[in-house]
Amino acid sequence: MRIRTVRKPGEPGTQKLVARYGDRLVSVRYRYDPEKGKRYKTVELIIAEEDWFPAQPAPTKSPQPPKIATTPIVPLRIHYSERDLQRQVKAIGGRWDASKKLWFAPEEYVKRLGLMKRIVR
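-> structure tokens emitted (121 positions)
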């Protein structure tokens, strides 16, 4: 079934339902079933009402940016044909600088990969 029209109380097509349900009427929907060739009029009603208070968010301390440990970026020389090594460096956050023809990666990860000899000083 498809919903083709949704009406609010007081709009055309809702007067009899407003008279019947009053303030409890929220909306009227017209649903269409193309297989059966039928149109259905449905209503949304308020059936209960009670007080509700949303939970208060926990007080937070003054917003401070998270502390991120930074490691220096070092230049690496990796030959064009060393594709596997290039992929490894890329995986640790390395970037290729075409103007300098060098790879740049965080020193901490370069040490872990054992590439200290490739650092350009």
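The beta strands are 2-7, 25-33, 38-45, 73-76, 95-97, 102-106.
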